Amino acid sequence: xxxxxxxxxxEALEVLSRGSGKIIAGGTxxxxxxxxxxxxxxxxxxTRIDGLKQISLRDDTIxxxxxxxxxxxxxxxxxxxxxxxxxxxxxxxxxxxxNAATVAGNICNASPAADGVPPLLAxxxxxxxxxxxxxxxxxxLAEFLTGxxxxxxxxxxxxxxxxxxxxxxxxxxxxEKLGSRRYLVISICMTAVNLTLGQDGRIADxxxxxGACSAVAQRLPALEASVIGQRLEKVDIxxxxxxxxxxxxxxxxxxxxxxxVVQEQCKRAIMQAASR
Length: 276
Hints:
276 residues; alpha+beta; Enolase-like, domain 1; five-stranded antiparallel sheet; four-stranded antiparallel sheet; 14 strands; globular
């Protein structure tokens, strides 16, 4: 087993093509997820690769390099459409974890309770992938996440970044999370909302995503459609709008409890986003 720390993407992709390795950036989940007696052929540290720690604007797209940390997100000069992502960033473990953990690592870990996923879904984020043999491709985040701890990432592929189309200047956002305590906690459920209000005060666009209530975080298209064109006081979160969710009973809460909480979270997040 070896440790490799390249400075170029091409070098990293060539290393990945050699065998079964594990990519690390912040490395905050590497040891907790390790199994006794099992180890990769090599660890590939991508934090020194040129450009992967940058947040940049390219044409009409905001690009987040795969080594961008949650602290980088918190400190970035981003518009109100990214307030939900920043709020989620502050919920990722402690400040020390936020300083090391990366946005790409959060999605590659593919936990149903990954704090960063709902706001990224509400931003319509896509994942940039690259391979030595197959070149580059881009997948919507919703297609990249395929199940619990499961993604569409190929063995010889790495995430090189995430991209988000520049949102409208009047789009706002909000993030709601419930845990068994205030800090350092896995979500019972969480909701992210991106919202655009028209000049008449009606909702012109809504993107609503819920995490920790299904194998992967889910957008709620029926709920989104129901609130578009509505005034805020008319918003009604009906149970049938939560159909994509499949919450479970576990030590943190029952499925019924999660359904109840999500209804309230959706309402609160919509109102929060509208107030901004």
